[in-house]
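Team,

Forwarding the record for the chain on the shared tracking sheet. I've put the sequence and predicted structure together so nobody has to dig through attachments.
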Amino acid sequence: FPFTEPSVEVDVSCFACGGCGCRLCKGTGWIEVLGAGIVNKKVLENCGIDSEEYSGLAFGIGIERLAMLKYGINNIKLLYQS
């Protein structure tokens, strides 16, 4: 994650291929469902925030990927089609 340092992510085994590697997981066997990290000091400073006094935590859950897991959807584009 380019704006956090250090960063962490939570991955789950790909539900489409069972971890063997496919197009959905880009051959890795893993799907990222959550990312987080401490906001880089330069980001805070560029926003006019004193990075010596304040810090920030950024995080996000891949709600689309959780929905794909729950409903057995193997293409994220299907969630956005009318």
